[in-house]
Amino acid sequence: MIDSKRRAVAWWLIAGIIMIVIEFIMGGVTRLTGSGLSITEWKPIMGFIPPLNEADWNKAFDGYKNIAQYKYVNSHFTLPDFKFIFYWEWAHRLWARMLGVVFAIGFVYFFVKKYFDKGMVRPFIILFILGGLQGFVGWKMVASGLNDTDLYVKHTWLAAHFLSAITLMCYTLWFALVLLIPADRRVAAPAMVRQLVAIILLTYVQLAYGAFMAGTHASRAVHTWPRIADEWVPGTLGSESMVTNVMNIQFVHRTLAYLLLIIIVVWYVWAGKAARRMGSVLLHKARRWPFVIVMLQVVLGVVTLISASQIVFGTFGFYETLAEIHQLVGMFLVMALVANLYIISKKK
Fold it and tell me: How far apart are CA 82 and CA 61, in angstroms?
């Protein structure tokens, strides 16, 4: 049985996961509305206060006017246009600060009430480190686009920011599962653990390439399926970078999607057999989530790509909505895989 104190801490952690999910959504909207470079100063403490008067707004706008994105993409912007993108980025950062506040207040409350045991000390230290790292990586991502040459943030930093947030969320989920699921409901399956770890690592690579797709705007360049601009294998594959060339990025992203679909379907079958053999009702139910989510994700990826032909610059339309959902479902896929990993990783 799980005592009430551990359960309370677990649900607090789950509340944090929900807040991270909302932060993902806000971050996606911020990127898709082109708002991410609107705040050109990093003020971790005082940054929660937006400009309060016309002079402050003009100062913030002047900072934006110094970067390439304004000069070459948004030079037509008036102050009201700037305020629109500013408030999206500000809300994104404000929610991240609120997440930190909720975590800090909860930590102090549970510490004073003596809800923590010794086994929780190290996970909380790791959570603090991961949270701080996420903020640092986020600013490095923004800073990569605050210059006179780049129109957007570096896609490699965008991927780092995305994956560090995924890692924070998954570790929080793991910690919550430790507190919620009794040991007698878990099973020991070392071989399956190795398989699932490999699948999760492959999913991380796939998510990185998804971020590369977003950061390089690869879907705008080529939005045909099943071929990539009338080619099954792009001619650039052997001669251009696998990290910067949009054709190669698309090819890798698509190939990994098909590969993950096959692997997760196979793992679903294996996990079903193992669940019956070990009599694990929990594994039998949990294995379904990655199976369902990966199929949904592949369909979403194809539809999102094809709909890129409908992009209207400066508007948040059908493509942007699908892209946001595609990102969100990818995040749920990782969480589903991690939850299954927890269930099968009981120590003998």
Answer: 7
Please name every residue paired with 61 in a beta bridge, in sequence order, or none if there are none: none
Q: Which two tokens stand for residue 329?
A: 């479902």
**Three-class DSSP labels, 195-215:** HHHHHHHHHHHHHHHHHHHHH
Q: Which of 44-58, 150-164, 251-265, 322-336 has the lowest mean pLDDT?
A: 44-58
According to DSSP H, which parts of 33-148 are helical? 54-65, 68-72, 79-112, 121-143
Q: Is 119 helix (H, G, I), strand (E, B) or coil?
A: helix
Euclidean distance between CA atoms 116 and 191, whole angstroms? 33
Give dist(CA 101, CA 106) in Å, integer. 8
Of 216, 124, 118, 130, nearest to 167 (Cα)? 130
Tell me the two tokens of residue 67.
């970067």
Joined tokens for residue 81: 């246009």
Give the type of residue at 138: G
Please report which confidence band the pLDDT of residue 119 belongs to, taking 50, 70 and 90 as the band edges. confident
